[in-house]
Amino acid sequence: MLSYPPSQHLTLQDEHGAALADYFYYAADELLYVHWHGQLTGDAIIRGVGHGTAWRDQLHYSLILNDKSDTGGDWSDALPWLQYEWLPLAVDAGVRAMAYVFSPDTENRFASHDFVTAVRPRMAIELFDDLDTALAWLLSQHEAQDISSKA
């Protein structure tokens, strides 16, 4: 992961008190890292994404590292909400790129591919099997943004 501590670290728990998602905010890189846990459902995804979205007024992030490497489950029923509710608001708020780390769960991968297909026309997004490669790509997107804004 990044070589310095996050500016913020928050955990969202599920209804049983177990971690649903950890959120790490890295202000210097405008990066929100979301590390998901457990068997995900559509409701869990909407709740977790909504939780991260609520901080947009406090935290400025243009990059999201979406890590589902420790998850399973079918959350495909959240896809319409993500595409039509979350995505337009995220783009309007300045989110420009997302690195998506796959779950090893096959069921989860189908929804992941559908999500990426829906998001790709609106922001840079790529799928990865490992966190280090995902982070390197995402940080390169930040550097590309810095270069284009100075040109």
Enumerate how many helices there are, as a single number. Answer: 4
Low-confidence stretches: none
Structural class: alpha/beta
Assign an overall shape. Answer: globular
Radius of gyration, whole Å: 14 Å
Average pLDDT figure: 89
With strands numbered from the N-terminus, the spatial order across the biggest sheet is 1-2-3-5-7-8
What can be said about the biggest beta sheet? 6 strands, mixed
Share in helix: 25-40%
Order of helices and strands: EEEEHEEHEHEH
Tell me the distance between the termini. 30 Å
**Total number of strands:** 8
Report the sheet-strand fraction: 25-35%
Helix-strand blueprint:
Elements: E1 8-13, E2 19-26, E3 31-36, E4 38-39, H1 42-53, E5 63-67, E6 71-72, H2 79-92, E7 97-101, H3 106-119, E8 124-128, H4 131-150
Parallel strand pairs: 3-5, 4-6, 5-7, 7-8
Antiparallel strand pairs: 1-2, 2-3
Helix pairs in contact: 1-2, 2-3
